[in-house]
Design a protein that fits this description.
heterodimer, A: alpha/beta, five-stranded parallel beta sheet, four-stranded antiparallel beta sheet, 34% helix, 24% strand, B: 424 residues, alpha+beta, 2 domains, ten-stranded mixed beta sheet, 14 helices, 51% helix, elongated
Chain lengths: 232, 424
C-alpha cells in the first residue's frame, strides 16, 4: 500500500464573475513510503492547491486523499488538523516563519500541536542543520538560506512520514537551490520520510527518484489558459 | 494539555510584539480595577468605622442643637462644640441606675491642633473603645491624677507632635490651632501616659483632668447662668460646673435609650441626646449616598472602557495577524486553539491589569487612609477583607476574556489557504 494515494481528486473555485473554474482533477497519484518525488508545473497549474489538499489544509470537492490508508477528505477539519500536525511536514515557498519568534521557538511551535514540544530535540535538529549558533535569532536576523533551514527543521520536527515542500528553492540562486534540495532530500532519507516537492526549477530535478509533470496527472491543468490566474 | 505550552508561547510573543498597546491597555485596566476596589472598599470601611461598630457608648448627651454636630464633636473630635450643659445633668445621669457609664467631656483647648479634652478617670476605667477593649496606657506611663496637671495623650499625638512621656506643655485656647493671635494658657501640663493605638479619633486627643479645664486661666463657668471664675485652692460648687458632652452607656440596651430619647429630646428643653449613635451618622451616609453611587458607577464605567480597550487593541491586530494564524493552522493548530490563544491573550492583559490594579488600589487606599487618619484618627485597613478585593480582579479577568471573544471569532474564521500564499 502506498503511503499517499490520490483518487479522482477534484477542486474548483468560483471566479468573481460567477463561473466555476476547475483547478484540480487528479484521477490518480501515488507516493510510496520514503519515496522522493518532484512535481513540476507552470505557475497557476494547481501545485499549491494540490499540496494543500494532500495536507488537509483545504477540503477538495470530491475524491479521496489516502495517507497510510486513511482518507483525509472524510475527516472533520479538527481531525485533519491533528493528523497534519502529527504526520505531515510542510515547507512553504516563503518559509512562513513566525516573525516574532526565535528560530528555536519556530521549530518548537511546529511540535506543540503534534507530538508535543521537545526543545532539546528541536535544538538538536537545528544544530544538525548548522544553525546551532542561531537558535535565539529571529527570522529577520537570518539570511534567506538560514530561514530555509529553520523552515526545514520545523517541517521535520514532528518526525513526519510525509514532507511536502512548495517551491522550496523559489527564493534561492541555482547554486543555493541545489544545496537546499540536497539537504532536504538527505534529511528526509535520514529520517525515513517520503518527500513530495513542487517546483518549477528544472535544475534540481536530478536529485529526485521520480519526476512527475503536473500536467500529466492534473486534467484540469491541461488547459493552462483556463487554470492560469485563477488560483495558485 | 500539551498545546497549553504552545498557547502560552503564542500569548507571550504576541504581548511582546504589541508591547506599546499591551502596556497602555494594561495600564488603563489597572486604573479601572484599582478604582473599583478603592471606591467600594473605602466606602465599606468608612461606613464601618464611622457607624461606630463596637464603640463603647450608646448615646451622647450635649447641648440643645444638632445631634450630628454633637456626635462629630464628642466622638470624632471634629467640628465645634454645640455648647455646654450644666454639671447637674451629668450628675443626674451618673446617678441614674439605668446608666452603666457616664463619661463627661469638657472641650475648648488644643495643643498644636490636637484637641484637649477634660474628663474623669471613668473614661479609662469603664469606657470600651471597641467591644471588650478598654483604653490602655503604653508601658512606662500612667493615667493622669485627677488632681494634678497631668495629661494622657493619644498615639497619633505622640507620633506627630513634640509631646512625649514627661514633656511639659501649655494648652492653647480654642479647639483648633491658630498660628496668629494664639492664646496660650499659663498652666503647664506634663505628659504622664501615652495611649496604645486604638485606630479611632481618640488617638488624636490629649486627655487632662476635667477640673483642669474648669480652672484654666481665661475660662469662665456658666453652669449657674452667671459667669464664675474658679479660685485656686477653693472647691468649685457643682452648680457652676458645666460639661460639653457626656458619653453614656445604658443598662437595658435600646429600650432605656428610647426612654431617655423621649425624656430629653421630646419633653426636655435643656439638652440633646444623640441616640442611637449609628443612626445619627447613618444620616450623613444617606445624604452622601448618591456620591458613593456616582463614584461606583464611574469606576464601573472605567472598567467597561478598559474592557473595550482590550477588545479594540486586539481587534486592530487581527488583520496583521491573519498570516500568523494561517501558519499556526498549517502547523496543525485547530481553529479553537488559535481562537483560544486570543481569549487567553485578552485574559492575560486583564490579569496583568488586575495585578497592576492591586498597586493602584494600594496607592489610592493608602492616600485616602492617610488623610482620614490625619484628619480624624480613624484607621482604615487596606488589607481587611472586602468582596470587591476579590470580585474586581476576577470580574476584570472575566471581562477581558469576554472582550477577546470577538477578535477570537475573527481568528477562528481565518482562511488558511488564502493567507498562506506569498504576500510579495
Amino acid at each position: 500500500m502506498p503511503l499517499l494515494e490520490i483518487r479522482d481528486l477534484k477542486k474548483a473555485y468560483r471566479a468573481p464573475d460567477g463561473t466555476v473554474e476547475p483547478v484540480l482533477h487528479v484521477p490518480h497519484f501515488a507516493l510510496e513510503a520514503e519515496e522522493q518525488v518532484a512535481l513540476i508545473g507552470q505557475s497557476g497549474s494547481g501545485k499549491t492547491t494540490l499540496l494543500h489538499a494532500i495536507a488537509g489544509i483545504l477540503r477538495p470537492d470530491s475524491g479521496a486523499v489516502l495517507v497510510d490508508g486513511l482518507d483525509l477528505v472524510g475527516l472533520s477539519e479538527g481531525r485533519r488538523d491533528a493528523f497534519r500536525a502529527r504526520q505531515i511536514g510542510y515547507v512553504f515557498q516563503t518559509f512562513n516563519l513566525l516573525q516574532g519568534y526565535t528560530a528555536l521557538e519556530n521549530v518548537v511551535l511546529g511540535m506543540v500541536f503534534g507530538a508535543g514540544a521537545d526543545r532539546p530535540y528541536a535544538a538538536e535538529l537545528l544544530q544538525r542543520l548548522g544553525m546551532g549558533d542561531r537558535l535565539d535569532y529571529r527570522p529577520s536576523q537570518l539570511s534567506v538560506g538560514q530561514q530555509q533551514r529553520v523552515a526545514l527543521a520545523r517541517a521535520l520536527a514532528n518526525k513526519p512520514r510525509l514532507v511536502l515542500a512548495d517551491e522550496p528553492t523559489g527564493n534561492l540562486d541555482p547554486q543555493r537551490a541545489s544545496e537546499a534540495i540536497a539537504l532536504l532530500t538527505s534529511l528526509c532519507k535520514e529520517r525515513g520520510a517520503a518527500l513530495l516537492v513542487v517546483t518549477h526549477e528544472r535544475s534540481v530535478l536530478d536529485a529526485f527518484e521520480r519526476v512527475v509533470d503536473l500536467k500529466e496527472i492534473n486534467l484540469a491543468a491541461r488547459g493552462a489558459a483556463t487554470a492560469q490566474g485563477v488560483h495558485p | 494539555m500539551k498545546a497549553l505550552g504552545g498557547l502560552l508561547l503564542i500569548v507571550r510573543r504576541s504581548l511582546r510584539q504589541h508591547l506599546l498597546s499591551t502596556s497602555v491597555t494594561v495600564f488603563s485596566t489597572a486604573i479601572a480595577v484599582g478604582l473599583v476596589m478603592s471606591v467600594f472598599h473605602l466606602n465599606a470601611q468608612t461606613r464601618q468605622a464611622f457607624l461606630l461598630d463596637g464603640f463603647g457608648a450608646d448615646a451622647v448627651l450635649g447641648a440643645r442643637g444638632s445631634k450630628l454636630q454633637l456626635v462629630l464633636n464628642s466622638v470624632f473630635h471634629l467640628e465645634t462644640s454645640p455648647g455646654n450643659i450644666p454639671w447637674a445633668l451629668y450628675d443626674e445621669m451618673r446617678l441614674d441606675p439605668r446608666v452603666a457609664m457616664a463619661v463627661p467631656y469638657a472641650v475648648g483647648d488644643n495643643y498644636r491642633g490636637f484637641r484637649i479634652v477634660g474628663t474623669t478617670l471613668e473614661l479609662f476605667e469603664r469606657f470600651e473603645v471597641a467591644r471588650g477593649k478598654k483604653l490602655a496606657v503604653q508601658p512606662g506611663g500612667v493615667v493622669f491624677d485627677p488632681n494634678v496637671r497631668e495629661a494622657v495623650i493619644g498615639s497619633v499625638v505622640a507620633q506627630n507632635s513634640d509631646l512625649r512621656l514627661g514633656t511639659l506643655f501649655q494648652p492653647r485656647h480654642g479647639v483648633v490651632s491658630s498660628p496668629v493671635g494664639e492664646v496660650i494658657h499659663p498652666e503647664e501640663y506634663q505628659v504622664v501616659g501615652v495611649l496604645e493605638p486604638t485606630g479611632t479619633p481618640i488617638d488624636r486627643v490629649i486627655f487632662i483632668p476635667i477640673e483642669g479645664i474648669f480652672r484654666m486661666e481665661g475660662h469662665e463657668l456658666k453652669g449657674a447662668g452667671e459667669p464664675y471664675k474658679p479660685e485656686a485652692g477653693v472647691a468649685i460648687p457643682d452648680e457652676h460646673k458645666e460639661v460639653s458632652a457626656v458619653l453614656l452607656k445604658f443598662h437595658g440596651g435600646p429600650r432605656t435609650g428610647q426612654q431617655y430619647d423621649r425624656q430629653i429630646n421630646m419633653q426636655g428643653k435643656e439638652a440633646t441626646l444623640a441616640f442611637p449613635l449609628a443612626q445619627v451618622l447613618l444620616e450623613i451616609f444617606q445624604k452622601l449616598g448618591w456620591m458613593v453611587q456616582v463614584l461606583g458607577t464611574v469606576a464601573i464605567l472605567v472598567a467597561l472602557v478598559a474592557g473595550s480597550s482590550i477588545l479594540a487593541a486586539l481587534y486592530n491586530t487581527m488583520n496583521e495577524r491573519r498570516r500568523e494564524f494561517a501558519i499556526l493552522r498549517a502547523l496543525g493548530a485547530k481553529r479553537r486553539t488559535v481562537s483560544s490563544a486570543i481569549v487567553l491573550e485578552s485574559s492575560a492583559i486583564a490579569l496583568l491589569g488586575a495585578l497592576g490594579g492591586l498597586l493602584v488600589y494600594g496607592g489610592i487606599f493608602g492616600a485616602a487612609a492617610y488623610v482620614v487618619r490625619k484628619e480624624t484618627g480613624v484607621v482604615l485597613d487596606p488589607l481587611a477583607y472586602h468582596p470587591s478585593l476579590v470580585l474586581a480582579p476576577l470580574g476584570m479577568v472575566a471581562l477581558g476574556a469576554l472582550a477577546g471573544i470577538l477578535p477570537a471569532l475573527k481568528a477562528y474564521s481565518t482562511d488558511v489557504a488564502a493567507n498562506l500564499v506569498p504576500t510579495s
